[in-house]
Amino acid sequence: MSKKILFVDDERNVLRSMVRAFMDSDYELECVENAGDALQILEDNSVDMIVSDMRMPGMNGYELLRMVRERYPEVIRIILSGYAEKETLVKAVMDGTAKAYMTKPWDNEKLRQEVSSILASYQSTRESGVLKLINAIDRLPVLPAAYRHIISLIEKDTSMNQIAQFIESEPEYAANVLRTVNSAFYGIRTGSVKKAIVYLGLNTVKNIVLSSEAFVLLSEGPVPKEEVELLWQHSSLCNRLLHGLYQAFYKKKIPEQFAAAGLLHDIGHLIILKYFPREFAAIHAYCKDEKKHQMTDIERQIIGAAHTQLGGYLLDWWNLPSDIVDACLHHHGLISDTMRHREIISLIHVADMYSSKEITHGAFERVDPRALRLLKTSKRQLDVLVKGILRDA
Amino acid sequence: MSNNDFIILQQHLTVSQTVFKIAKSFVSLDGYEKVIDQALEQLGQATNAARSYLFLFDRDKKVMNNTHEWCREGVIPEIDNLRDLPLDMFPWWLKRLSNGEVIDIEDVDSIEEEGHAEKQILKQQDIKSVLVLPVEIDGVLIGFVGLDDVKTSRFWDAQTKNYLKVASDMIGMAVRKHEAEEQIHAQKGELEQAYENLKAKEMQLIHSEKLAGIGQLAAGIAHEINNPVGYVSSNTDTLRSYVRAIKKVMNLYRKDAGREEICALEKELKLGFILQDIDMLLDDNLEGLSRIADIVKNLREFARIDKKEKYAAADINAGLHSALLIARNEIKYFADVKTDFGGLPPVVCDIGEVNQVFLNILVNAAQAIQSQARNEKGLIEVSTRCDDTHVICVISDDGPGIVEQNIRKIFDPFFTTKAVGKGTGLGLSISYDIIVNRHGGKLHVENRKTAGATFRIVLPIKNNKLIYEQENLIC
Asked: Of A107, B178, B370, B463, whose CA is between 20 and 30 Å from A252?
């Protein structure tokens, strides 16, 4: 069945050019000029994705998407805006109102790629194997409380100072924030969460809190603590490598939405460990024996879905931006040429591989040659870079 | 009357006349230095001394300085050896002077044990006899006047000493008057400085208000422009695929186009050229649209009004890029730009302000080249580098450079060499304020060996000062 996309923009010219841009695609398009009409369409039809302008007379795009989030949480919400204030767009994604934003003017080809890539990622987290496992889980942990509180503070435009104070009141999360900023290759040493927010950005700090809290939540009950500890160590190291590699490759700060990607990328392992401990052991035993196989393939064989998909599902369900969901979904390679953020996801993949090797002493898999090609690098160069980063750390 | 009495009477007359002259000169309009020098000379002459001099204590009475000296011909001046002497060098004198006494040493050799320190020093200078007069302000000792004789021992009668004490009292008053004047002068200077600072601050405020206004306007316009640019570029892209389809069909038609009137019409309308040119035309349009989009985006990023937190980790190369784009119109008719950007780590700064500095220096460079009214275009070179702790940005031009005597004044508020109405003379002083005071960096200018000027902007990568300020700001 073809996917249905709903475009909302008060300029008819824009809507017409959208129809033209998607003329050759398989999507079914609906175009409306205001929020009221959009809600009417959603009421009467099943829609897969809504792409809305921000500034519109009457109800604006932000309000519309919030309402959609409440009433139709399964609809993927995207902003397409010519609105100048980027911070408003970043905020809308950060507080979960939209999954992603794109700006006007847009490039038709890129827009098509983004739309198809977001739909594909969504599809991948909703495969029947994944849904079967999710349904088997009694109660999936809801969005962690501390993280939810930070989101509400952001929504209320609370000052950075108060947000920092809140994080400082949770020693374990504050420690993880500081650990990240102190090892993030900015050459700084600090004991202040406020400084960390200045350096890393609020988005990153927020995601660090989320990952710390998620680890706590998912390791409650009879979960083997040593496995959790190993996973956390791996996640921290992977994040550190990611920052170091990004700095080495691009000589600049890693984009904010990915600055905690290393910490969150393997959250799917934790789900398997908590809810399917026997299968977890089986998968890892198998991986050790069958080094030729992709871990994700083995997981699909044994439990019917990969940890990347389960992690992606959870992050998506928690309403995280599609960027971070993609990072989780695709970090095991098989990176296609049209995928969004393919360079950075390749780096996450590389960081994941090297970190696994470091933590478990022996890599399960090899680095995906496509990632090497995308990054225009070689295994040998990466070996040297990683060695340097590990030495500095 | 004995001969000796006569000599003493004569001396009384001379000294009293001198005191009278000194009193007169002190109420004249002559400057402090001049009247003191004159008074010392007159005292020296009148008393037949070899040397007369004034010592003044510093404010906290720790050290004293020989501030003025008069020497008879053939006598070696000592003033340069007598700076910053500790007050306790002359304990015996000081005790007596503090009581308002005039110290009269007929013969240095006869100084008793209590004046041991003084004796040694006087002998070192080959002084035979000396008269020391206290200089006081409101009864407090602030220095002394000395009259030396290097050859002979001297006898001073009480009346002469009284006259001389009046002279030293007058010197005390002159010093007091001078100090008061100095104080007023200093206060006036401070006031003037404060006024200048205020004026500069006010101009800066107006300037930044203006910039914020432009930023706000840019943001509003950006939205208005981005919508039409959005659908025009999207449509142009779609049109390209339409044209491809039409061409495909048409080429097939044209193969069988035997009819004469079609051929004639094709020729008349230059269809061959149109089909050939249409792709380039669409490409040009798309390129133009993407440039419009780039300008809007940069204008917005440049003004940075959408940033809530002032200080954040920022990309300096991107900032320079946007400043170059904004300044493009000022530069492109007069100079080419050569950029050489090195890899830079993120720098914690207020990138909006730093961008202003870049823009300012770039526009100055372009105007300097323009001022030469030369035939060929100039060259502006922009490069960035970094070391472990700092990011360095160098902007050079091959214009006339800066006149050597102006190079030190170039960062002063209101200093400008531009014609009236062309510049406020504030650009570089604001730049200096932004880089040095607000970011703890360095802003340096020098002339190039060949031609033109080089500005060097140095910013610390990790800026604890800023973080500290920001923490205070948000508390």
From this structure: A107
